[in-house]
Amino acid sequence: MTRFTGKSVLVTGASSGIGRAAARRFLAEGATVFGLASSDASAAAARATDPQIRWLAADLRAPGAAAVVVRQLGGALDVLVNNAGIYKFAALADTSDELVHEHFAVNVYGPYALVREAAPLLATARGVVVNVTSTSAQKPMPQQTAYGASNAALEALTRSWAVELAPLGIRVNAVSPGPTLTEGVRRMPFPPEVFAQMAKRMEAIIPLGRAAQPAEVAHWIVALAVPASTWLTGQVLNVDGGLTAT
Fold first, then answer.
1. How far is the C-alpha of 238 from the C-alpha of 175, rounded, in Å?
2. How far apart are the C-alpha atoms of 186 and 192, rounded to whole Å?
3. Summary mean pLDDT of the chain
4. In the predicted model, is pLDDT for residue 2 greater than 70?
5. Which residues in 140-235 belong to E strands, given as ranges?
6. What is the pLDDT of residue 202?
7. Taking the model in full, what pTM does it have?
8. Given a cut of 70, is residue 76 above it in pLDDT?
């Protein structure tokens, strides 16, 4: 399938997990794909495995970084996927100011700055923004207050941007994944036995009985960006095995 031939796509957090799966899927469908990594080292490592993706590196928390990224796109952008995010869990009593600020800087300010800077290009293309949030924004989980709140903020921005940018022909939607087996999840600092217990608890409360694979989430990111979805904006699609239905 080549539904994105001639289209330009930017995916943040594209060097691993859901972002990498989405970037590869857009590439397979004919798009020119720009992958944004958070550092030169991450971009270099990703370039070695996915050389057909055009790799950029930037820390979107830095003032002016989003504008620099947009200038490197060559004057065209049809789809922006705001996938980059962090998740660091802690009980409320153990949550530092720095942890809260970091979640909002990465999960909220980064997408905010990038949409602001990319809006003129997206307007020219009558393009699409797809934000990647989390079911933690809607389904409260212990030790995830900063993470959940930052993703709830991004879902609020999704709806606000959809209304504000609609007159420019820009559609804005979000995909909200449930537990997904990414490299980041596997690197979480838990002993193997604790990780196994957590996985069993999550599987017990997910109606479909398992966590997702990154490609399963990427499928819906691409689906929200296809031209056939032109009547859809301001929506948050839960891709969570039924978790938020319980």
1. 6
2. 10
3. 93
4. yes
5. 171-177
6. 78
7. 0.94
8. yes
Those residues whose C-beta lies under 8 Å from the C-beta of residue 68, and which sit 6 or more positions away, are 58
pLDDT digits (tens, 9 = 90+) for 182-198: 866 656 655 666 557 76
Closest Cα to residue 178, out of 222, 242, 130? 242
* Type of residue numbered 167: P
Structure confidence at residue 185 (pLDDT): 60
* Contact (CB, 8 A) for 82 and 111: yes
| Residue positions annotated with a catalytic role | 147
CB neighbours of 221 closer than 8 A, spacing ≥ 6?
18, 22, 25, 81, 83, 130, 132, 175
Cα distance between residue 59 and residue 64, in whole Å:
10
Q: Per-residue DSSP letters for 106-139?
A: IIIIHHHHHHHHHHHHHHHHT-EEEEE--GGGTS
pLDDT digits (tens, 9 = 90+) for 196-215: 776 787 788 999 999 899 99
176 touches 236 (CB < 8 A): yes
